[in-house]
Amino acid sequence: MPSPVPSASQTPVPTGPLLVTGGAGYIGSHTVRLLRSLGVETIVVDDLSTGHAAAVDGDFEQLDLGDLEALKDCFQRRRPAAVVHFAARCYVGESVTDPASYYLANVHHTWNLLEAMRAADCRDIVFSSSCATYGEPQFVPLTEDHPQLPISPYGKTKLHMEHMLDDYARAYGLRFAALRYFNAAGASADGRLGEVHEPETHLIPLALQVALGQRAELLIFGGDYDTPDGTCIRDYIHVEDLADAHLRALGKLQAGTQCLQVNLGTGDGYSVQEVIDGARRATGHPIPARIVERRPGDPPRLLAGGSRAIEQLGWQPRRSDLDAIIQDAWNFMRAHPKGYDV
Ligand code: UDP
User: Fold this and answer.
1) Is 185 close to ligand 1, i.e. is its CB under 6 Å away?
2) Which of 59, 133, 211, 240 could form a disulfide with 285 if both were Cys (CB 3.0 to 4.6 A apart)?
3) Which atom of ligand 1 lies closest to the CA of 294?
4) d(Cα 77, Cα 294) in Å, to the nearest integer?
Protein backbone atom coordinates (compact mmCIF):
# COMPACT_ATOMS: atom_id res chain seq x y z
CA MET A 1 0.00 0.00 0.00
CA PRO A 2 1.46 3.42 -0.83
CA SER A 3 2.63 5.37 2.19
CA PRO A 4 0.46 8.38 3.17
CA VAL A 5 3.61 10.19 4.30
CA PRO A 6 5.21 12.53 1.77
CA SER A 7 8.75 11.62 0.67
CA ALA A 8 11.69 13.87 1.52
CA SER A 9 11.45 15.58 -1.85
CA GLN A 10 7.80 16.52 -1.12
CA THR A 11 8.40 18.05 2.32
CA PRO A 12 9.32 21.72 2.77
CA VAL A 13 13.01 22.19 1.99
CA PRO A 14 14.91 23.80 4.88
CA THR A 15 16.48 27.19 4.39
CA GLY A 16 20.28 27.16 4.40
CA PRO A 17 23.06 27.56 4.90
CA LEU A 18 23.03 24.82 7.50
CA LEU A 19 26.02 24.25 9.74
CA VAL A 20 26.38 20.48 10.29
CA THR A 21 28.68 19.39 13.10
CA GLY A 22 29.92 15.85 12.66
CA GLY A 23 28.97 15.94 9.00
CA ALA A 24 31.90 13.64 8.22
CA GLY A 25 30.44 10.92 10.42
CA TYR A 26 27.99 8.15 9.73
CA ILE A 27 24.56 9.76 10.12
CA GLY A 28 25.85 13.27 9.46
CA SER A 29 27.28 12.41 6.05
CA HIS A 30 24.02 10.81 4.91
CA THR A 31 22.04 13.83 6.10
CA VAL A 32 24.35 16.30 4.35
CA ARG A 33 24.03 14.35 1.15
CA LEU A 34 20.22 14.37 1.34
CA LEU A 35 20.12 18.11 2.07
CA ARG A 36 22.48 18.89 -0.79
CA SER A 37 20.50 16.71 -3.18
CA LEU A 38 17.60 19.10 -2.48
CA GLY A 39 19.76 22.15 -3.14
CA VAL A 40 20.28 23.15 0.51
CA GLU A 41 23.65 24.79 1.20
CA THR A 42 25.59 23.00 3.96
CA ILE A 43 28.79 23.73 5.87
CA VAL A 44 30.27 20.63 7.48
CA VAL A 45 32.22 21.30 10.67
CA ASP A 46 34.17 18.26 11.84
CA ASP A 47 37.53 17.68 13.53
CA LEU A 48 37.92 14.33 11.73
CA SER A 49 38.69 12.63 15.05
CA THR A 50 36.24 9.88 14.10
CA GLY A 51 34.75 11.19 10.85
CA HIS A 52 36.10 10.71 7.33
CA ALA A 53 37.03 13.47 4.89
CA ALA A 54 36.02 11.17 2.03
CA ALA A 55 32.46 11.06 3.39
CA VAL A 56 32.04 14.85 3.27
CA ASP A 57 29.95 16.36 0.53
CA GLY A 58 30.46 20.02 -0.30
CA ASP A 59 31.74 22.79 1.93
CA PHE A 60 33.93 21.66 4.83
CA GLU A 61 35.71 23.37 7.73
CA GLN A 62 37.99 21.19 9.84
CA LEU A 63 37.40 22.59 13.28
CA ASP A 64 37.41 21.33 16.86
CA LEU A 65 34.27 22.26 18.79
CA GLY A 66 36.54 22.70 21.80
CA ASP A 67 37.90 25.86 20.18
CA LEU A 68 35.20 28.37 21.09
CA GLU A 69 36.87 31.35 19.41
CA ALA A 70 37.31 29.48 16.12
CA LEU A 71 33.72 28.30 16.35
CA LYS A 72 32.40 31.80 16.99
CA ASP A 73 34.48 33.04 14.08
CA CYS A 74 33.00 30.36 11.85
CA PHE A 75 29.46 31.43 12.81
CA GLN A 76 30.27 35.10 12.17
CA ARG A 77 31.76 34.38 8.77
CA ARG A 78 29.22 31.83 7.59
CA ARG A 79 26.04 33.09 9.24
CA PRO A 80 24.25 29.71 9.20
CA ALA A 81 20.45 29.76 9.28
CA ALA A 82 20.38 26.66 11.49
CA VAL A 83 22.56 23.92 12.98
CA VAL A 84 22.39 20.15 12.80
CA HIS A 85 24.48 18.77 15.64
CA PHE A 86 25.80 15.24 15.16
CA ALA A 87 29.32 15.62 16.57
CA ALA A 88 29.66 13.48 19.69
CA ARG A 89 31.36 10.49 21.16
CA CYS A 90 29.03 7.53 21.02
CA TYR A 91 30.41 4.32 22.55
CA VAL A 92 28.52 3.21 25.65
CA GLY A 93 31.36 0.96 26.88
CA GLU A 94 34.06 3.59 26.38
CA SER A 95 31.93 6.15 28.21
CA VAL A 96 32.05 3.94 31.31
CA THR A 97 35.85 3.70 31.34
CA ASP A 98 36.54 7.24 30.09
CA PRO A 99 33.61 9.46 31.15
CA ALA A 100 35.78 12.59 31.15
CA SER A 101 36.15 12.53 27.37
CA TYR A 102 32.35 12.13 27.04
CA TYR A 103 31.53 15.08 29.27
CA LEU A 104 34.10 17.13 27.37
CA ALA A 105 33.10 16.19 23.82
CA ASN A 106 29.37 15.90 24.36
CA VAL A 107 28.46 18.38 27.09
CA HIS A 108 31.21 21.00 27.07
CA HIS A 109 31.46 21.16 23.27
CA THR A 110 27.68 21.47 23.00
CA TRP A 111 27.84 24.41 25.40
CA ASN A 112 30.46 25.97 23.10
CA LEU A 113 28.20 25.39 20.12
CA LEU A 114 25.19 26.94 21.84
CA GLU A 115 27.27 29.97 22.84
CA ALA A 116 28.53 30.41 19.28
CA MET A 117 24.92 30.18 18.08
CA ARG A 118 23.79 32.72 20.65
CA ALA A 119 26.54 35.16 19.70
CA ALA A 120 25.51 34.90 16.05
CA ASP A 121 21.77 34.97 16.81
CA CYS A 122 21.33 31.55 15.21
CA ARG A 123 18.28 29.97 16.82
CA ASP A 124 17.45 26.59 15.31
CA ILE A 125 19.20 23.33 16.12
CA VAL A 126 18.45 19.70 15.40
CA PHE A 127 20.28 17.44 17.81
CA SER A 128 21.20 13.72 17.78
CA SER A 129 19.83 12.33 21.00
CA SER A 130 19.48 8.68 21.82
CA CYS A 131 17.21 6.03 23.26
CA ALA A 132 20.10 5.61 25.74
CA THR A 133 18.62 8.61 27.58
CA TYR A 134 15.78 6.36 28.79
CA GLY A 135 18.01 3.89 30.64
CA GLU A 136 16.61 0.56 31.80
CA PRO A 137 13.17 0.20 30.18
CA GLN A 138 10.29 0.38 32.66
CA PHE A 139 7.95 -0.54 29.82
CA VAL A 140 8.38 -1.43 26.14
CA PRO A 141 7.89 0.05 23.60
CA LEU A 142 9.57 3.18 24.93
CA THR A 143 7.37 6.19 24.32
CA GLU A 144 8.81 9.70 24.51
CA ASP A 145 7.32 10.19 27.97
CA HIS A 146 9.14 7.16 29.37
CA PRO A 147 11.25 8.38 32.34
CA GLN A 148 14.73 9.45 31.26
CA LEU A 149 17.06 7.73 33.73
CA PRO A 150 20.17 6.90 31.70
CA ILE A 151 22.54 4.31 33.12
CA SER A 152 25.70 4.93 31.07
CA PRO A 153 27.79 8.10 31.01
CA TYR A 154 27.05 8.21 27.27
CA GLY A 155 23.28 8.29 27.91
CA LYS A 156 23.76 10.80 30.72
CA THR A 157 25.71 13.19 28.49
CA LYS A 158 22.99 12.98 25.83
CA LEU A 159 20.37 13.80 28.48
CA HIS A 160 22.49 16.72 29.73
CA MET A 161 22.56 18.00 26.17
CA GLU A 162 18.76 17.74 25.91
CA HIS A 163 18.45 19.68 29.18
CA MET A 164 20.80 22.39 27.93
CA LEU A 165 18.72 22.82 24.81
CA ASP A 166 15.54 23.00 26.84
CA ASP A 167 16.96 25.64 29.19
CA TYR A 168 18.37 27.71 26.32
CA ALA A 169 14.98 27.51 24.61
CA ARG A 170 13.21 28.87 27.70
CA ALA A 171 15.76 31.60 28.41
CA TYR A 172 17.04 32.66 25.01
CA GLY A 173 14.41 31.63 22.49
CA LEU A 174 16.39 28.73 21.00
CA ARG A 175 14.28 26.33 18.94
CA PHE A 176 15.37 22.70 19.04
CA ALA A 177 14.57 19.18 17.98
CA ALA A 178 16.03 16.31 20.04
CA LEU A 179 15.80 13.23 17.85
CA ARG A 180 16.17 10.09 19.94
CA TYR A 181 17.63 7.48 17.65
CA PHE A 182 17.23 3.78 18.26
CA ASN A 183 19.74 1.54 16.41
CA ALA A 184 21.06 3.40 13.36
CA ALA A 185 22.00 0.95 10.64
CA GLY A 186 22.34 0.48 6.87
CA ALA A 187 24.11 2.61 4.28
CA SER A 188 23.25 4.74 1.28
CA ALA A 189 21.41 2.73 -1.34
CA ASP A 190 24.13 3.37 -3.94
CA GLY A 191 26.91 2.03 -1.69
CA ARG A 192 28.81 5.33 -1.55
CA LEU A 193 28.29 6.22 2.12
CA GLY A 194 28.16 3.86 5.06
CA GLU A 195 29.21 2.98 8.56
CA VAL A 196 32.96 3.04 9.30
CA HIS A 197 33.89 3.01 12.99
CA GLU A 198 37.28 2.30 14.48
CA PRO A 199 36.97 0.15 16.50
CA GLU A 200 33.73 -1.32 15.15
CA THR A 201 31.38 -2.46 17.90
CA HIS A 202 28.03 -2.63 16.12
CA LEU A 203 26.30 -5.86 15.31
CA ILE A 204 25.54 -5.51 11.59
CA PRO A 205 28.97 -4.29 10.41
CA LEU A 206 30.65 -6.90 12.61
CA ALA A 207 28.53 -9.69 11.08
CA LEU A 208 29.39 -8.41 7.60
CA GLN A 209 33.09 -8.26 8.47
CA VAL A 210 32.87 -11.98 9.21
CA ALA A 211 31.30 -12.51 5.77
CA LEU A 212 34.16 -10.52 4.21
CA GLY A 213 36.68 -12.78 5.93
CA GLN A 214 37.97 -9.98 8.15
CA ARG A 215 36.88 -11.76 11.32
CA ALA A 216 36.66 -15.47 12.07
CA GLU A 217 33.37 -15.40 13.95
CA LEU A 218 30.73 -13.24 15.54
CA LEU A 219 30.20 -13.26 19.29
CA ILE A 220 26.58 -13.18 20.43
CA PHE A 221 26.38 -11.33 23.73
CA GLY A 222 23.97 -13.52 25.69
CA GLY A 223 21.64 -16.32 24.60
CA ASP A 224 19.52 -16.56 27.74
CA TYR A 225 17.44 -13.37 27.59
CA ASP A 226 13.68 -13.52 28.05
CA THR A 227 13.02 -13.23 24.30
CA PRO A 228 11.72 -15.87 21.84
CA ASP A 229 15.20 -17.01 20.74
CA GLY A 230 17.09 -15.88 23.87
CA THR A 231 19.02 -13.06 22.15
CA CYS A 232 18.49 -9.30 22.55
CA ILE A 233 15.91 -7.48 20.45
CA ARG A 234 16.69 -4.05 19.00
CA ASP A 235 14.91 -1.55 16.77
CA TYR A 236 17.09 -0.99 13.68
CA ILE A 237 16.45 2.18 11.74
CA HIS A 238 17.90 2.87 8.29
CA VAL A 239 20.35 5.77 8.20
CA GLU A 240 18.57 7.28 5.19
CA ASP A 241 15.32 7.30 7.15
CA LEU A 242 17.16 9.09 9.96
CA ALA A 243 18.47 11.66 7.47
CA ASP A 244 14.93 12.27 6.24
CA ALA A 245 13.75 12.93 9.81
CA HIS A 246 16.40 15.66 10.22
CA LEU A 247 15.17 17.37 7.12
CA ARG A 248 11.60 17.35 8.43
CA ALA A 249 12.66 18.54 11.90
CA LEU A 250 14.52 21.49 10.36
CA GLY A 251 11.45 22.38 8.35
CA LYS A 252 9.30 22.35 11.49
CA LEU A 253 11.69 24.53 13.49
CA GLN A 254 12.04 27.01 10.66
CA ALA A 255 8.23 27.15 10.44
CA GLY A 256 8.13 28.21 14.10
CA THR A 257 7.93 25.08 16.26
CA GLN A 258 9.99 25.69 19.37
CA CYS A 259 10.62 22.25 20.79
CA LEU A 260 10.46 18.70 19.48
CA GLN A 261 11.48 15.55 21.34
CA VAL A 262 10.88 12.59 19.11
CA ASN A 263 11.80 8.91 19.00
CA LEU A 264 13.14 7.62 15.70
CA GLY A 265 12.65 3.90 15.34
CA THR A 266 10.35 1.50 13.55
CA GLY A 267 8.64 0.01 16.59
CA ASP A 268 9.55 -3.43 15.19
CA GLY A 269 12.39 -5.37 16.69
CA TYR A 270 14.80 -7.98 15.46
CA SER A 271 16.81 -10.30 17.64
CA VAL A 272 20.58 -10.67 17.32
CA GLN A 273 19.91 -14.13 15.91
CA GLU A 274 17.50 -12.73 13.30
CA VAL A 275 20.09 -10.14 12.28
CA ILE A 276 22.71 -12.85 11.84
CA ASP A 277 20.27 -14.93 9.77
CA GLY A 278 19.57 -11.83 7.64
CA ALA A 279 23.29 -11.27 7.13
CA ARG A 280 23.67 -14.91 6.08
CA ARG A 281 20.87 -14.48 3.52
CA ALA A 282 22.32 -11.27 2.11
CA THR A 283 25.90 -12.48 1.87
CA GLY A 284 25.52 -16.22 1.23
CA HIS A 285 28.22 -16.69 3.89
CA PRO A 286 27.66 -19.05 6.88
CA ILE A 287 28.86 -16.34 9.37
CA PRO A 288 29.95 -18.53 12.28
CA ALA A 289 28.54 -17.19 15.55
CA ARG A 290 29.07 -18.20 19.14
CA ILE A 291 27.11 -17.31 22.26
CA VAL A 292 29.22 -15.70 24.99
CA GLU A 293 28.49 -13.79 28.19
CA ARG A 294 25.95 -10.98 28.21
CA ARG A 295 27.33 -7.50 27.61
CA PRO A 296 26.82 -5.38 30.75
CA GLY A 297 24.00 -2.85 30.45
CA ASP A 298 22.16 -4.53 27.56
CA PRO A 299 18.39 -4.68 28.22
CA PRO A 300 16.59 -7.60 26.52
CA ARG A 301 14.35 -5.40 24.35
CA LEU A 302 14.58 -1.82 23.14
CA LEU A 303 11.76 -0.72 20.85
CA ALA A 304 10.59 2.73 19.88
CA GLY A 305 7.04 3.63 20.80
CA GLY A 306 4.93 6.72 20.51
CA SER A 307 3.45 8.50 17.54
CA ARG A 308 5.20 11.85 17.72
CA ALA A 309 7.41 11.18 14.69
CA ILE A 310 4.43 10.75 12.43
CA GLU A 311 2.26 13.36 14.16
CA GLN A 312 4.86 16.08 14.53
CA LEU A 313 7.26 15.40 11.67
CA GLY A 314 5.04 13.52 9.23
CA TRP A 315 7.85 10.95 9.27
CA GLN A 316 7.76 7.24 9.03
CA PRO A 317 10.47 4.76 8.05
CA ARG A 318 10.62 3.75 4.38
CA ARG A 319 13.79 1.70 4.02
CA SER A 320 14.05 0.14 7.45
CA ASP A 321 13.07 -3.46 6.88
CA LEU A 322 15.91 -5.67 8.01
CA ASP A 323 16.76 -7.11 4.60
CA ALA A 324 17.05 -3.65 3.01
CA ILE A 325 19.22 -2.42 5.88
CA ILE A 326 21.58 -5.37 5.64
CA GLN A 327 21.68 -5.32 1.84
CA ASP A 328 22.64 -1.65 1.77
CA ALA A 329 25.26 -2.15 4.49
CA TRP A 330 26.64 -5.12 2.54
CA ASN A 331 26.83 -3.15 -0.72
CA PHE A 332 28.81 -0.45 1.08
CA MET A 333 31.17 -2.88 2.78
CA ARG A 334 31.93 -4.74 -0.42
CA ALA A 335 32.71 -1.43 -2.13
CA HIS A 336 34.80 -0.22 0.85
CA PRO A 337 36.20 -3.33 2.56
CA LYS A 338 38.82 -1.26 4.38
CA GLY A 339 36.65 1.79 5.01
CA TYR A 340 36.90 5.11 3.18
CA ASP A 341 40.68 5.23 3.08
CA VAL A 342 41.20 2.52 0.49
N1 UDP B 1 25.78 -7.57 19.83
C2 UDP B 1 26.29 -8.87 19.82
N3 UDP B 1 27.55 -9.07 19.38
C4 UDP B 1 28.35 -8.04 18.93
C5 UDP B 1 27.82 -6.73 18.93
C6 UDP B 1 26.53 -6.52 19.38
O7 UDP B 1 25.62 -9.81 20.23
O8 UDP B 1 29.51 -8.31 18.56
C9 UDP B 1 24.40 -7.33 20.30
C10 UDP B 1 24.30 -6.37 21.46
O11 UDP B 1 24.45 -7.06 22.68
C12 UDP B 1 22.90 -5.79 21.26
C13 UDP B 1 22.72 -5.81 19.75
O14 UDP B 1 23.70 -6.72 19.25
O15 UDP B 1 21.94 -6.63 21.83
C16 UDP B 1 22.96 -4.45 19.10
O17 UDP B 1 24.20 -3.96 19.58
P18 UDP B 1 24.95 -2.75 18.89
O19 UDP B 1 26.29 -2.65 19.59
O20 UDP B 1 24.96 -2.92 17.42
O21 UDP B 1 24.05 -1.49 19.21
P22 UDP B 1 23.55 -0.89 20.63
O23 UDP B 1 22.22 -1.56 20.88
O24 UDP B 1 24.56 -1.20 21.65
O25 UDP B 1 23.42 0.55 20.35
Assistant:
1) no
2) 211
3) 11
4) 50
